[in-house]
Queue: 2 jobs
Job 1
Amino acid sequence: MSEKTKRVRRIGVLTSGGDAPGMNAAVRAVVREALTNNVECVGIRRGYNGLIHGDYYLMTGQEVSHILSHGGTVLYTARSEEFMTEEGRKRAVDICRFLGLDGLVAIGGDGTFRGALELSRLGLPVVGIPATIDNDVGCSNYTIGFDTACNTAIDCVDRLRDTMSSHERCSLVEVMGRRAGFLALYVGISVGATAVLLPERDLDFERDVLEPIREARFAGNTHFMLVVAEGVCMDEKFEGVHTVFDLGNKIKEAIGMKPTVTVLGHLQRGGKPTARDRETASRMGYRAVKALVEGRANLIIGTQKGKIEEIPIEDALKMKKSIQMERYDMLRDLQNRVPRH
Ligand code: ATP
């Protein structure tokens, strides 16, 4: 800390947007690292809503004991329409001033960081921590919650496969991911899916759905597992298909086999965070407080090539992360197909 840097005495922490397993581990790390540095930590409930409405409490080291093994967030989370207005944000900053906050740690996704950027423009030092099961934050290779959500979805699909393969059925499983297909891709690779449908790709029903089923059937498979990201049907990537159930009907019409449709939905958000999520969240929370205490702010704590990095929020929000299409190609190569000559 330089001599000119104002001593940080009190910070706030909040979780915002969709909940993600591992958020609690990040909150714990923020609180404990703050207290280690003689900095008080105010927990703000329900994201930016709590900030606007003064829903907060002073956190102790004891009350974050053992929360790192729990999914969800002890601070609750919310989406705040009011915070989208200038008036709402001014009110939020007034509350921060009233509380004497020298900084704020905001844990969430891109939307949360856009909100954090606005707060920084109003003079509040902020640091963001990426936590979303979609893994769709451009500035960070990894977001807290992704690994747990993958493992939860894989566990569900494995169970489904046991029953569906016994009946020699076709399974169509929808996983979360409106604009990003990371979850679908990683789950698809890990369960050896017959086909994976990603929102990032231009899709063709014949090429991307029917052909993989036919190839697998020709190679001797009697059960077919199709993994589809929710954005595919929402964006009507196939004509006349608005839901995964429509997609199931379209497959039935084309090949006479009616897939059993399973929507994993909010199941994917819950559960005990994995080692990767607890460890990453702990490192990010620790680093966020270190940055504030050492006088650095208006950053996102991201991971790049496995290392924790501090990225200025404005730059971070411009960064894009593409889905790894080479993994998609690998998935196709690893499918059971009769070799072409
Ligand atoms: P997830 O990836 O899980 O959806 P997220 O952080 O992207 O998480 P959002 O709902 O997009 O979730 O954003 C959370 C909150 O951040 C919003 O409810 C809103 O209050 C605030 N926010 C989002 N975008 C902006 C913006 N452009 N300006 C100010 N605040 C914003």
Job 2
Amino acid sequence: MCGIVGYVGDKDAYPLLINGLKRLEYRGYDSAGVALIGSQGLRIHKCQGKVSDLEAHMRDVDRSGNVGIGHTRWATHGAPNDVNAHPHVSTSGDLALIHNGIIENYAPLKEELRSRGHTFRSETDTEVLVNLIEDIQRSEEVDLPEAVRLALENVVGAYAIAVIDRKSPGMLVAARKSSPLVIGIGEHGEHYLASDATPIVEHTKNVVYMEDGEIAIIDRTKGLKIRNVKNQEKTPFIQALEMHLETLEKGGYDHFMLKEIHEQPRSIRDSMRGRLNLAQGEVVLGGIKDYEQKFVNAKRILILGCGTSWHAGLVGEYLFEELARIPVEVEYASEFRYRNPIIHEDDIVIAISQSGETADTLAAIELAKGRGATIIGICNVVGSSIPRVTHAGSYTHAGPEIGVASTKAFTAQVTVLTLMALMVGHKKGTISGSRFHRLLNELDAIPSKVEQVLKNEAQIKYIADIYKNATNALYLGRGYTFPVALEGALKLKEISYIHAEGYPAAEMKHGPIALIDEEMPVFVIATKGASYEKVVSNIQEVKARKGKVIAIVTEGDTVVKGLADHAIAIPETPDALVPLLSVVPMQLISYHIAVMLGRNVDQPRNLAKSVTVE
Ligand code: M6R
């Protein structure tokens, strides 16, 4: 939700900023802008639209400057237009500021600043902050870093900000609270700033992840200094970045989403690497080793997440309840925090998030942590906020996921949840040794089975072509595949804008069946397993009402094949592992429909990859 970049050094800032913004565009694409300081003073360029629109606009302007900031916006306060685009400028025109987050008390601050002579052009909360900093700079006669620090004492909300000042041309001041910021330290004394490491990795592997409440002062001659809100100096903790540039490129695919779907054999394998040990017949999750006994003794597990991560959590519920016999509640993080949930000190809370930055999930974690629960994270982005506030966790190792629609992150999350549930079930003795070993072998075979599923892409594309003009779609699953039905429906809605609903197959007769007519495609996961016969009956109910059935079946199935309009076969695997295979055709169907409809697959309208506002 909004991407921030900054540069201070000897090189031309503009190309670095614009390339950085392209990497961060997944965080929001309503508008983009840059502010540069060079021999011509401070210049701001911004416009509604994508980074490419800004680039076009910049072709005919002076782009010089060695210090600069850039922003790509996901609109919260104020429409996505040129005026509301960042950077925002103070009344005098001296300060330029970019912001990711929300200033909750912006309205009273705005009134106060107005009464003190400040003027506002935009509807944004950000413009209030830049004026507040200027007001303090002048009234208290302090330098920029101190003015930022004092201003932030008056601010309620979440922010990652970067500010530059025409009167301090070699300096950039950045600060964070609940929104991420990373600083890259270049070989020649130059510094890079970004919302995540993706714009930085091509310049340096040495990074500092800023902590909440920290203010960074980056000076062209004096280098980097970090202070906290109490004005105490802190030694920057420099880490080596483990990220490879090629993971940020499309690698020959038309879209990141397609690349990420096809990466799943590898990403699932990477999520199991070093954890699933077939030779020893064990699961070792190093990151939660010290919490194994807590898991074994847990009376209850709460799983928190949003969107696709919540769907992965639902699969986790089935896994933990079946394999480890621990009651599980799966909660939308956003709902959990706005009631008064009952949390026990011996509860284990598993927080799932691809980005590790989702504001609702972070806030729910803080609530559960405050009530004494043990928080275990399952996140993909290394060094993001959630892994830093949890007690322990396991990264998913799916690699950067850039398409806004989550695909490989889902299968990696489910893989890690499966490993956790197996590990706990084995330690507790709630699954037999033979079943444990059989499931380990089956899990190990999943990456090559996903490869087989991907070979059905031509058939899936053919089916996508038939149903691309549908206005509604139903997705049905049962047991382990009910969450997959929800995930399939979410994928279709978010990238093709076709209305879709996921339901437990048996619920259809309690309402949704009224929607079925000859126009309605119904995607049904009807693999061989515990509920197979029941799902076959549900398919018959759909067919009796002339609905179109697209079924995901187990290889060799003839019964459903005979009933359905189309059957996509996936290899046989135990029920507990079916989500890892059955979700793949769902992802591909949505992808191909969206492409055929001419949608912007990687950057669907109104969405952003990292949702850092509540
Ligand atoms: O980064 P997170 O996993 O916490 O994000 C949660 C949701 O915003 C995310 O899964 C969203 O629903 C995706 N666009 C789904 O494809």
